[in-house]
Amino acid sequence: MSYVGPDFEPPQPRRSRRGPLTVALAALVPGALLGWLVYETVGGSGDGGGSGEAAVRSSPPAASSAPSDDAKEPSAEPTPSDAPSTSAPAASGPLKGKVVVIDPGHNPSNFQHPTEINRKVNIGMNWKECDTTGTSTNDGYTEAKFTLDVAHRLRTLLEEQGATVKLTQDDDRPYGPCVDERARIGNAAKADAVVSIHADGSGAGNRGFHVILPGAVHGGAADTRAIVAPSRDLGERVAGRFVAVTGSAPANYIGDGSGLVTRKDLGGLNLSTVPKVFIECGNMRDSKDAALLTSGAWRQKAAQGISEGITSFLRA
Ligand SMILES: [Zn+2]
């Protein structure tokens, strides 16, 4: 989520700036958000605002299966406790030799370790809490559970492409890791790409996804200057494919409709020395977005979109 704790500072709501600006800004991102432009055209969303209704219209309805499919749906993955955090080397595939680190935001057990996760860690130029609990839907589906599920699906898809995949956590530790360690895991793996998976906790009516890109930060242990450009490339590709596969619109409350937000306050980005982005897949506190986020079928699409964005970046 974007709104509490070390992950995120309070946003500046910009809902009034939707409309024509959405298309204008999307057009400023050549190629990467082509899927969004196509979506806008095909979806026939005349106001250019990418309203929530438009997003629903272009994707299969998920509401019928949303409330309970978590419990019913067969998992696409082995149970997390049985799964190693690092995949076996793939024999072949277009991503053979590539290392991808997936960072599932938060940790399902952070709730039970407030002292540990509130401990301040150095994120370069300042200090922030080790980690946060994350948000949840109004019905109690936690962001931490969501991020792990998407991470598992994403791992499977990337491994099928031949990538070596490592998770920063797999519900295999009592809390965390802290945001500084999350960054170090990607650095130590010499990852070719890192994607941190999240879902937001904004107000009802705020809908859609956004990808968070590192801004240029140089000070203390932080120096993102070398990763700003490749991270933007990665983020634009992930956003473009996420739109195309899920049919979800870029956030209507942040990012001016572009689905992209640059930030300099996130330790997980500031301490990274390898290309890295966050994705906020939707808003857990909006009932329509929650219906998507709680659907296993939709999470598979989310993972597919992210996977295609990563693959596109790594093969460029
Ligand atoms: Zn989060």
From TrEMBL:
Keyword Hydrolase: yes
Gene3D superfamilies assigned: Zn-dependent exopeptidases
Chain intervals for the UniProt region annotation (Disordered): 40-114
Biased segments, Low complexity type: 54-68, 76-92
Keyword flag Cell division: no
InterPro entries: MurNAc-LAA_cat (IPR002508), N-acetylmuramoyl_amidase_3 (IPR050695)
Keywords for the protein's UniProt record, in alphabetical order: Hydrolase
SUPFAM superfamilies: Zn-dependent exopeptidases
SMART domains reported for this sequence: Ami_3 (SM00646)
Biased composition (Gly residues): 43-52
Domain MurNAc-LAA: from-to ranges: 183-311
Listed name of the protein: N-acetylmuramoyl-L-alanine amidase
Source organism of this protein record: Streptomyces lomondensis
